[in-house]
Amino acid sequence: MDSGHTAWMLTASALVFFMTPGLAFFYGGLVRVKSLVNTIMLSFMTICVVTIVWTLWGYSLAYGPNVTGSPLIEGFIGNLSVLGLEGIRWEPLDSEGSFGGGGVDVLFQMMFAIITPALITGAFVERFKFSTYLIFTIIWITVVYAPVAHWVWGGGWIGADGAGALDFAGGIVIHITAGAAAVAAALLVGKRTNPGLQPNNVPYVILGAAILWFGWFGFNGGSALLADGYAVNAMLVTQISAATAATTWGLIGLFTTGKISGVGVATGAIAGLAAVTPAAGSVNPLGALAIGLGAGAICYFAVELIHRTNLDDALDVFAVHGIGGLWGCIAAGIFAVESIAGDGIKGLIQTGSFEQVWIQAYTAITVLIYTFVITYVILFVLDKIPGLGLRVSESSENQGLDLVEHGEQAEVNDGAN
Predict the structure, then answer these.
(1) How does DSSP classify residue 311?
(2) Selection from 16, 27, 10, 13 nearest residue 216 by Cα
(3) In which domain, by residue range, is 299 found?
């Protein structure tokens, strides 16, 4: 047992958990006040539902041994050998960081599974049925998140023994899946009756972004699996990318509108964090600077472009997380350096070869397409089930989902003022 490594991974797990409440405030501040409680509750209940699914079968599907017997499913999904976490070892980390299949692994990876569907909710805030979302989350974790996590981290076809794609902490598994699912959801749910959106609480947005930024040190630093120099580099490049992207976003806003928006800078930071996530284990500080610069600019203009379409991805999930994650995955293939990534892994800058860039691109795009198609099918079926459906009525949307779905309000005027 190594108590230092174990303590770090437990701390990192808590940091990643804290990201979902941070996301709740970030999203909550962006919506109208009449749907603030509902927006926060989408994230809060995701914590509860995904924890149960992960315990019963989610972890086993994602990280259990490969299902075998057919070339069609080899490397696609884990089996149910640890259903209900049966047989999981609870010993702490040893000095080599070997906790595969152990309790620390279950806990740390659970937090990643929790935040991913919570990210999707930004696409359909203010108009989605809460009960349908809970059902959707159970299905989506089972048939989208668990398989993709298995492909990348659980011994499947995208990991080091397969295509060799670099995804240190979830650019593919989390951000691309959430972004692709957001597009499918926005298409099927449709536009809000009044899509013009003014944030109800900018301090909530900035507070939420700050909490996310703080938690991201566990997200990326914890993915090193040890309290060592690898974790230090992951945390350092996380900071550099986020700060660079936030600054870039703010400066572009200044040049185009004459103002530096608090919401914009906060959103830029999230874009930089999403982009560096797949690359945090393979790039150095200068690579992170380039990734952050790219994320701030690319995601800014992606938001502007999507706003000119009929797609009502209300809180820009695809533009920030989907595009940011895709850029980060490709950038890992550009800026990876062997001194950080190890095992002879070198990016375009070091080798002049596009091989790693191609691996990054085709695996990321494959996951994007898979996620979009399966998410679309899930939501299409749920929408056709009598008594279920995806969307609240127009009158409920106009009234606000806080009262309609929860019988509560974020702001209550009791007549005293």
Answers:
(1) -
(2) 16
(3) 3-406
Length of the chain: 417
- Which among 184, 175, 169 is positioned nearest to 119, based on CA atoms? 175
Who contacts 337 (Cβ-Cβ below 8 Å, separation ≥6)?
A: 282, 283, 284, 287, 346, 347, 349, 350
Cα(343)–Cα(339) distance, integer angstroms:
9
pLDDT at 312 > cutoff 70: yes
Q: Domain of 122: which CATH number?
A: 1.10.3430.10
User: Is 411 among the domain residues?
Assistant: no
CB 79 within 8 A of CB 62: no
C-alpha closest to that of 206 among 264, 293, 276:
264
How far from 197 is each of 126, 207, 210, 314, 416, CA to CA, in Å? Answer: 11, 19, 22, 8, 29
3-state SS class at 37:
helix
pTM above 0.90, yes or no: yes
What is the CB neighbour count within 10 angstroms for residue 89? 13
Domain membership of residue 45 (yes or no) is yes
User: Which residue matches tokens 């959103």?
Assistant: 267
As a whole number of Å, the CA-based R_g of the chain is 21
Using DSSP, how many helices (H) and how many strands (E) does the chain show? 18, 0
Torsion angle, CA of 7/12/14/19, rounded to 10 degrees?
Answer: 170
- Decide if pLDDT at 417 tops 80: no
Count structural domains, the chain: 1
Each residue's pLDDT tens digit, 44-62: 999 999 999 999 999 999 9
Helix 323-335 to helix 285-307 angle (10° resolution) is 150
Tell me whether residue 166 is in a domain.
yes
C-beta of residue 53 within 8 angstroms of C-beta of residue 141: yes
Residue 337 lies in a domain: yes
Q: For the residues 302-322, what does the mean pLDDT come to?
A: 96
Please name every residue paired with 102 in a beta bridge, in sequence order, or none if there are none. 89
Q: How far apart (Å, rounded) are the C-alpha atoms in residues 100 and 251?
A: 44
pLDDT in tens, 213-252: 999 999 999 999 899 999 999 999 999 999 999 999 999 9
Please tell me the predicted confidence (pLDDT) of residue 301. 98
